[in-house]
Amino acid sequence: MSLYKLPLGIRIPTNDEYPNEYDVKSINTARDTANITEGFKIAKVSDQNFTYFAEVNLDVDKIWDVFSHLANNLIDHIAYGILGFKDEEPLLSNFAEKQAIINIFEEYKFELTNDGYLEFGIAYYDNSTLNEIYISSFKYMRIWTTKKEPLIKCLNNFGIIESDNLQFIDSFPVVSEALSADSSNGIRHYSEVISCIEEEFNKL
Fold it and tell me: Per the confidence metrics, is the pTM higher than 0.90?
């Protein structure tokens, strides 16, 4: 099956990048036949402050627009931002105006949606509800929500449909790479992105 469009910082290993003990042919065959395509799966959840959990594969070119549309449909006016780095505990902002958080992320949307180490999200919770949209370092979305219908409608509007047997890129060996800073193209290294967003978070 054809993979969806991956970000710049996530790629399939070349054959000589696998450790010697790996059966490269079998891994590549399994990946080639896996359902790592654009789509989403959703499950109902009990005894939590959210009622549905969804995971979404989508082309890298859609990540920012889908993220911002979901934020506007699943989260009200107040939220907190989440900035993560692969395999590390994420940094959380204070609660603030939702649009202020989106504006901070938008300044770095290319790096956030393409760097193989950066993660980000936005959320709101109270005593009875949790709505959170999170983009992992592998650039698929995880969504915890009480609002199933707006979630599905938004995804469908971007041509993303439900797929019960959906699989994810990190189910198989994958290479994560940092973007190289390029001042001529305005691309910033993840260290600069993290520092700048953390500084903006501290102002909220």
Answer: yes
